[in-house]
Amino acid sequence: MISLNTLLIIFVILFAIIGAMRGWAKELLVSSSVILTIFILTILENYIPIFKTNVAMQSESTLFWVRSGVLGALVLFAYQTPNIPRLSTSDRFIRHYLQDGLLGFVFGALNGYLIFGTLWYFMDAAGYPLTSIITAPESGSALEQTFQEVISLLPPSLLGTPAIYFAVAIAFVFILMAFI
User: Fold this and answer.
1) pLDDT of residue 161
2) 3-state class (DSSP) for residue 162
3) Is the sign of the CA dihedral 34, 14, 120, 132 positive or negative?
4) In the chain, what is the greatest distance between 2 CA atoms, to the nearest angstrom?
5) Per-residue pLDDT averaged across 59-78, rounded?
6) Which residues are CB-contacts of 19 (< 8 A; sequence separation ≥ 6)?
7) Among 29, 30, 40, 159, which has the minimal tally of Cβ within 10 Å of its Cβ?
8) Using CA atoms, how far apart are residues 45 and 130, in angstroms rounded to an integer?
9) pLDDT mean across residues, the chain
10) What CA–CA distance (Å, rounded) separates 16 from 7?
11) Are 27 and 19 in contact (CB under 8 A)?
12) 60, 125 contact by CB (below 8 A)
């Protein structure tokens, strides 16, 4: 049995290695897609009345699957976008130098944190609906204390209502810098 804390570190390292191979421009798209996912879900759940009332009527397990589905769709699209012929032939997606790989490593590690951290946050908010695979720590245990500390540092916790607007603006600026 492996702790989610350890799994988070494993995914950060795995995504960092993938990022080093893919390059920073491709990884920037993935980072932006996760930030966009959190932004979209924040807007829908807090400011759109129809969605807000539907969220209140749904079970936490259903919300977990909807949130995870939105995250998965946008991340999948971001990983596949550079395969579009017009974009893949652009010089921005071709790795030339060592710094492209190093920046890709950093952005890949960030992506591992963003993707797995966001899924973990959604899972915790839903009360760990995958009980056959992943279980919540025992109440009052040291592991539960550690989980709560880590969960307070996960992307949706850090990117609350005012911070998510700044994160979207910063991601947009990075995308403009990368492609213009």
Assistant:
1) 81
2) helix
3) positive
4) 54
5) 91
6) 27, 104, 105, 106, 107, 108, 109, 111
7) 40
8) 23
9) 84
10) 14
11) yes
12) yes
Q: Which amino acid is at 20?
A: A
Structure tokens at 31: 């980072």
Q: What is the C-alpha separation between 132 and 141, in angstroms, rounded?
A: 20
Q: What's the pLDDT at 88?
A: 53
Cβ neighbour number for residue 37 with a 10 Å cutoff: 24
**For residues 22 and 128, what is the distance between their CA atoms, to the nearest angstrom?**
32
User: Which two three-digit tokens encode residue 95?
Assistant: 């790795």
φ/ψ bin of 59: left (φ > 0), alpha (ψ from -120 to 50), beta (otherwise): beta
Take residue 20 and report the two structure tokens written for it.
């080093």
The DSSP secondary-structure symbol of 136 reads: P
Query: Could you tell me the CA-to-CA distances from 156 to 34, 50, 95 in Å, in that order?
Result: 10, 22, 31
Which amino acid does the sequence have at 38? I
Give the rounded distance of the alpha carbon of 25 from its chain centre.
17
